[in-house]
Amino acid sequence: MEQAPPDPERLLQPAPLEPLGNPDAGLESVVVEEADRPRDEGPGDGTMTENNFWLKKIEISVSEAEKRTGRNAMNMQETYTAYLIETRSVEHIDGQSVLTDSLWRRYSEFELLRNYLLVCYPHIVVPPLPEKRAEFVWHKLSADNMDPDFVERRRIGLENFLLRVASHPILCRDKIFYLFLTQEGNWKETVNETGFQLKADSRLKALNATFRVKNPDKRFTELKHYSDELQSVISHLLRVRARVADRLYGVYKVHGNYGRVFSEWSAIEKEMGDGLQSAGHHMDVYASSIDDILEDEEHYADQLKEYLFYAEALRAVCRKHELMQYDLEMAAQDLASKKQQCEELATGTVRTFSLKGMTTKLFGQETPEQREARIKVLEEQISEGEQQLKSKNLEGREFVKNAWADIERFKEQKNRDLKEALISYAVMQISMCKKGIQVWTNAKECFSKM
Amino acid sequence: MSGGPPKALPSTGPHSLRDMPHPLAGSSSEEAVGGDSTPSPDLLMARSFGDKDLILPNGGTPAGTSSPASSSSLLNRLQLDDDIDGETRDLFVTVDDPKKHVCTMETYITYRITTKSTRVEFDLPEYSVRRRYQDFDWLRNKLEESQPTHLIPPLPEKFVVKGVVDRFSEEFVETRRKALDKFLKRITDHPVLSFNEHFHVFLTAKDLNAYKKQGMALLTRVGESVKHVTGGYKLRSRPLEFAAVGEYLDTFALKLGTIDRIAQRIIKEEIEYLVELREYGPVYSTWSALEGELAEPLEGVSACIGNCSAALEELTDDMTEDFLPVLREYILYSDSMKSVLKKRDQVQAEYEAKLEAVAVRKEERPKVPADVEKCQDRMECFNADLKADMERWQNNKRQDFRQLLMGMADKNIHYYEKCLMAWESIIPLLQEKQEAK
């Protein structure tokens, strides 16, 4: 079970980077402004009883998409798509839903929200957004962002993202997320004012840590490999699936030519004419059936894509662990060297190389007072360092514990979702086969009447 | 020969099953012998062939004392010949058992030709000979020479078209065997061609090469006389019915050509689809190796796609082997028909020219000279033969295409049924609840 979540009601302050080890935090639910929105909080011991309490209370949907033109940061005209987000609160008793909030957001705002969540909840596997640009397209699909089919699939993906966040036991309580759904104007400024960008770890630092860390938790190392391989295999799968779709499209469409030629042939035949003509019609039906079939399959591809992107989110959590672990190792190393220095100064033996030692040799010994002063400084630093190390250690362990809890939750979710996706894929194939049997049986009957 | 059309040979026209004499009961007699009965092979051996009106001792119900094996094989033959108008049948020919012969000079395939007949012309009730493609080719040429007024069925192509096909591969040999079998059966069905001397020799001679060397032994009178038509006569106009046939054949061949191209294209697309599927399935396997709970479901999907791939391969093979060759055969058939039409035109042209020449010369006597009359006979014979053949051809064409297209539909239905089964069978696997680890 997770520790108490960061307090979402704290006005305009980001949630702390990690849940505090302090078990007293997060108990109170300060309902400050949102008097019209009663919020259930968990019992006072900080444990969560309702994982999806948002979903119980509200329904979120991205119901529309609209093309807009506006001016961008460089005052140039641009076209973009805006999405309508509607939030409904569900009354307990009669199950009726009442529209409580409705606002428009564009894709870049979703991105901002997600970046915020990534920085503020590094131990959480943050749900991914649908792809920015259409990838893994097979030739019939448009790669154009303005294409209505793409926009429609993106709308569904964005809705899915919001639902995932809303159903996450920790993320759902985030203030900024709440405002995203409720405060149309000024939201961007609000997010930026949290200063979350400053907390973001630099990519360079993270990369450095990945290479240099000595003792990461084995589970995270394994998880990292898993997510790399998952990314690779799902990418491959999506690429080949797109090619398969392309070929299947070709097979079906060529059959349409039978329709025309049977019709022409039937014109010169006497008894065979009718049978040929009607069979030709079935061939046309067959050829046109592929469009719907492949459209359905795109939904399956989208489900796979979500987990392709989820793999990246998993990697992010692993990276954070490596960074923290590296930080810890560096702090420990630093402490150890200071302790060593201190010892050398105290006992007068020089075992390690130090600049002071060199200069002492060159320019003469320092006075006992100087030495005392230095030892004092070092001792202070050591004491500070020990405190820091202790808290870093604690933080590290907390992180690992909480991250692993979310990872377990994620694994369950992934297994459930992907199983469902495979089942729906199988169902699609079954439907396609049945349609095929139907069409060819009809054609066969027409042929039999020739 | 008189002016009337030649009497049609053994075809006695449609008979009810009741009246129909047993195929092996009478020989080439037109008379209906009462009662239907099934023979046994032994009976074939024992019979005396002079007796046209022999009633089988087993006379009575078809379910009599005959051995089931023979009656079912008989039934098979009847169905193969698609004889729905109930002709009497006294000649059965099959092509089977291809064998490869490796000699110093060349390697080639021979086929076994089995003939069973009660006809007088056959000394034995049964013959079994081996023939190779060039023997069939020889036969066809001989038939064209000796029966120029008739439509000779086409042979499968002599040379392998693409050069990529292995002419000793099982599939190629089987496709060819079927086509050769069809060829002989069509001749067998023909009331005139089946009595052709060359055909008889082809079916029965132990040493065909010796006979070939003898040269053309027998030619019908009509054949000889038609051979002498050197051509060069210009036809005024084709009679309406033959013109219609000509136009029909032109369009027909065109449409068949289009269908052939479409079918080839479909097979090509299906093969490319198959190639992708073969890469697609295994990726699920690779994924399965990474997972725990999902391992079995993913592996199941991989296996499923593999099954669909196998089914698709079968479909493309079947279409290539069974569908395309028959289609092409009909294109060849309509080409033959067109050339026969042209020959007919020649005969008519000669007649018209001669008639005109006579009209120019002042003739007091109203009687038409003998050779012009001969020409007229020739033309009318030709017309009659051709008409009969056209009708027969149209009927067979209808049956053949019905069978062909239904076959195509069937193959596709079976393909989808196999895929359906594969996908339906993994649903329970996918829905299975895993035990908590």
UniProtKB/TrEMBL annotation, chain A:
<dbReference type="InterPro" id="IPR037430">
    <property type="entry name" value="SNX4_BAR"/>
</dbReference>
<dbReference type="InterPro" id="IPR034783">
    <property type="entry name" value="SNX4"/>
</dbReference>
<keyword id="KW-0967">Endosome</keyword>
<dbReference type="InterPro" id="IPR036871">
    <property type="entry name" value="PX_dom_sf"/>
</dbReference>
<dbReference type="InterPro" id="IPR001683">
    <property type="entry name" value="PX_dom"/>
</dbReference>
<dbReference type="GO" id="GO:0015031">
    <property type="term" value="P:protein transport"/>
</dbReference>
<comment type="subunit">
    <text>Heterodimer; heterodimerizes with SNX7 or SNX30. Interacts with WWC1/KIBRA. Identified in a complex with WWC1/KIBRA and dynein components DYNLL1 and DYNC1I2. Interacts with BIN1.</text>
</comment>
<dbReference type="InterPro" id="IPR027267">
    <property type="entry name" value="AH/BAR_dom_sf"/>
</dbReference>
<dbReference type="InterPro" id="IPR034902">
    <property type="entry name" value="PX_SNX4"/>
</dbReference>
<keyword id="KW-0472">Membrane</keyword>
<dbReference type="Pfam" id="PF00787">
    <property type="entry name" value="PX"/>
</dbReference>
<dbReference type="GO" id="GO:0031201">
    <property type="term" value="C:SNARE complex"/>
</dbReference>
<dbReference type="GO" id="GO:0032266">
    <property type="term" value="F:phosphatidylinositol-3-phosphate binding"/>
</dbReference>
<protein>
    <recommendedName>
        <fullName>Sorting nexin-4</fullName>
    </recommendedName>
</protein>
<keyword id="KW-0813">Transport</keyword>
<comment type="similarity">
    <text>Belongs to the sorting nexin family.</text>
</comment>
<feature type="domain" description="PX">
    <location>
        <begin position="61"/>
        <end position="187"/>
    </location>
</feature>
<dbReference type="GO" id="GO:0005886">
    <property type="term" value="C:plasma membrane"/>
</dbReference>
<keyword id="KW-0653">Protein transport</keyword>
<keyword id="KW-0446">Lipid-binding</keyword>
<feature type="region of interest" description="Disordered">
    <location>
        <begin position="1"/>
        <end position="50"/>
    </location>
</feature>
<dbReference type="GO" id="GO:0031901">
    <property type="term" value="C:early endosome membrane"/>
</dbReference>
UniProtKB/TrEMBL annotation, chain B:
<dbReference type="Pfam" id="PF00787">
    <property type="entry name" value="PX"/>
</dbReference>
<feature type="region of interest" description="Disordered">
    <location>
        <begin position="1"/>
        <end position="45"/>
    </location>
</feature>
<protein>
    <recommendedName>
        <fullName>Sorting nexin-30</fullName>
    </recommendedName>
</protein>
<dbReference type="InterPro" id="IPR027267">
    <property type="entry name" value="AH/BAR_dom_sf"/>
</dbReference>
<dbReference type="GO" id="GO:0032456">
    <property type="term" value="P:endocytic recycling"/>
</dbReference>
<dbReference type="GO" id="GO:0031901">
    <property type="term" value="C:early endosome membrane"/>
</dbReference>
<dbReference type="InterPro" id="IPR036871">
    <property type="entry name" value="PX_dom_sf"/>
</dbReference>
<keyword id="KW-0813">Transport</keyword>
<dbReference type="GO" id="GO:0015031">
    <property type="term" value="P:protein transport"/>
</dbReference>
<keyword id="KW-0653">Protein transport</keyword>
<dbReference type="GO" id="GO:0061709">
    <property type="term" value="P:reticulophagy"/>
</dbReference>
<comment type="similarity">
    <text>Belongs to the sorting nexin family.</text>
</comment>
<dbReference type="InterPro" id="IPR028649">
    <property type="entry name" value="SNX30_BAR"/>
</dbReference>
<dbReference type="GO" id="GO:0000422">
    <property type="term" value="P:autophagy of mitochondrion"/>
</dbReference>
<feature type="region of interest" description="Disordered">
    <location>
        <begin position="54"/>
        <end position="73"/>
    </location>
</feature>
<dbReference type="GO" id="GO:0034727">
    <property type="term" value="P:piecemeal microautophagy of the nucleus"/>
</dbReference>
<dbReference type="GO" id="GO:0035091">
    <property type="term" value="F:phosphatidylinositol binding"/>
</dbReference>
<feature type="compositionally biased region" description="Low complexity">
    <location>
        <begin position="63"/>
        <end position="73"/>
    </location>
</feature>
<comment type="subunit">
    <text>Heterodimer; heterodimerizes with SNX4.</text>
</comment>
<dbReference type="GO" id="GO:0000407">
    <property type="term" value="C:phagophore assembly site"/>
</dbReference>
<feature type="domain" description="PX">
    <location>
        <begin position="89"/>
        <end position="210"/>
    </location>
</feature>
<dbReference type="InterPro" id="IPR001683">
    <property type="entry name" value="PX_dom"/>
</dbReference>
